[in-house]
Design goal:
Elements lengths: L6 H5 L38 H14 L6 E6 L7 H11 L4 E7 L10 H10 L5 E4 L5 H11 L3 E3 L2 H5 L3 H11 L8 H14 L1
Parallel strand pairs: 1-2, 2-3, 3-4
Helix pairs in contact: 2-3, 3-4, 5-7
The protein binds flavin mononucleotide.
Amino acid sequence: MVDDIQPDAAAELVCTWCSAPLGSPDLARCPSCGAILHGDLAEPLPGVTAVDAAALVRGMIAAVKIPITAKMRLGWDDDNLTAPDLARVLEDAGVAAIFVHGRTRAQGFSGTVNLAGIRAVVAAVKSIPVIGNGDVTTPEAAKHMLEETGCAGVSIGRGAFYDPWIFRRTNHLLRTGELLPEPDFAERLRVLQPKVAAA
Ligand SMILES: Cc1cc2nc3c(=O)[nH]c(=O)nc-3n(C[C@H](O)[C@H](O)[C@H](O)COP(=O)(O)O)c2cc1C
């Protein structure tokens, strides 16, 4: 992505907090004032709004030739579910799609994915695809998320660690309604052997 940034446009990226030039959209913090651009925060930053995020994203969209998508959690915690508002504002800013992990920042990876929260993000945007994420560890879980939330697709993280065949099996389930069996020992060996040999 960095290769696609036009140098002049990249130089125009500024911190939405203190207006210092950033030069690179990959920075997690502004080197001048320390404002969070992306990354982990111990506490919500009062005053950092979706509008600030949109200004940053607009700068990125202007600076590159490829589509910009945004990934978010549902919000800081159950009392601050910011994702629907953020998704709406980022859609207006021009992002091509929204990815949402159906947990809050406070949850970390605890509890289970909140499908109603993802559904609220789907309802908030006008036309861009929303991709649901979180706890999709089986083809059935993918189907359930699609049906329960109306999301346009799902993204699979840890489920692919557990089961690298999950994409093929999910695709098959969604297209045919048939749940393929998990790969047998011979198939697992066929895939693993070259990787073990190369290690
Ligand atoms: C090892 C690991 C690395 C991750 N790295 C990122 C990352 O760089 N950016 C990001 O947005 N999410 C990252 N995530 C979060 C996942 O994209 C995803 O939102 C989260 O794991 C929930 O989805 P899952 O239940 O399918 O794993 C990471 C998760 C794991 C387990």
